[in-house]
Amino acid sequence: MRDPMRASHGRILELERQEIEELVSRNRVGRLGLSVNDEPYVVPVSYAYHEGKIYIHSGRGKKTEYLEKNPRVCFEIDEVYEDGSWKSVI
Q1: CA distance 77 to 90
Q2: Fewest CB within a 10 Å sphere: which of 11, 18, 45, 88?
């Protein structure tokens, strides 16, 4: 049985649904990726997670300007451990 916290370097393992839920639930900061006219913009944001949905609050600014022009976004959450291993959800 594989240790879900550890993968051999260079080998990416897919997380199980339960692992994804736990990772998203225990964190509060993720990265929101947006793009307008081939200009990418990635920004860390705080979020809340409830019943399978991610909620982000933001005032007016570059994030909302980009979002209004292109609502297609990417959201990423990660954890990096002391031994150099990591997990992420996109």
Answers
A1: 7
A2: 11
Q: Which helix (H) or strand (E) holds 39?
A: strand 39-46
What is d(CA 74, CA 31) in angstroms, rounded to the nearest whole number? 8
Cα separation, 42 vs 51, in Å, equals 25
Q: Tokens representing 4?
A: 């879900």
Q: pLDDT (tens digit, 0 to 9) for every residue of the chain, 90 residues total?
A: 445 545 455 678 899 999 999 999 999 999 999 999 999 999 999 999 999 999 999 999 999 999 999 999 999 999 999 988 899 999
38, 56 contact by CB (below 8 A):
no
* Identity of the residue numbered 6: R
Tokens at 25, concatenated: 């639930």
